Amino acid sequence: MMQRLSEKKEIILKIVCFGDSLTFGYNVAHKEKWHVIVEKKTGIQMQNSGINGDTTDGMLARIQQQVFAAKPDGVILMGGYNDIFFNHSWQSAAQNMKIMVERCRGQNLLVVVAIPPPILLPVAFKDGGEAIDFKKSAVMVEAYCQWLRDFTATAQLPILDFRSAIDWTDQDLYLDGIHQSPAGHQRMAGRLIEFMGKQSWL
């Protein structure tokens, strides 16, 4: 049986943050991105391997080159929203997340699954136009996030909750109802540092 993250004894020196625009930090200055803030405050190297607009299909296609080849101590997996926006389904994202978790475990990496922040519907409606049905997407996002909670519990994986662990009702935490502002990145960084402390990384 795989050891739980908290049972690992390795020193954590490098983490790959793997995902889409929420990981990359869309339209936010480099120094204001959540992973950069965490790196400066903890000394743990945080490699950002997020790509704007990516789906979990894309993540799966590049995991070898951008995660395993980097030889990190661990990986934070956060993706799936674009699958819902563009493919109108969360089930394929769930399957891809399962595959990525197993491949990371096969590389003996510490694996953390992250629940992304919620969509702020009033702002997303305003800025998203008619290209995406955010109201329907939000329902699928809820189902997907619940699946992530259930999956990580069954797989005995730690879950990094950027969703319910932070109060996202303030519109100033968003750029457009989906992507976080610098203030939102500060909240995410604080949540990750708190998580690291509980996992005895710090």
From TrEMBL:
Superkingdom of the organism of origin: Bacteria
InterPro entries named in the record: Ester_Hydrolysis_Enzymes (IPR051532), SGNH_hydro (IPR013830), SGNH_hydro_sf (IPR036514)
Residues passing through the membrane, by range: none
Domain (SGNH hydrolase-type esterase) ranges: 17-187
Protein name according to UniProt: SGNH hydrolase-type esterase domain-containing protein
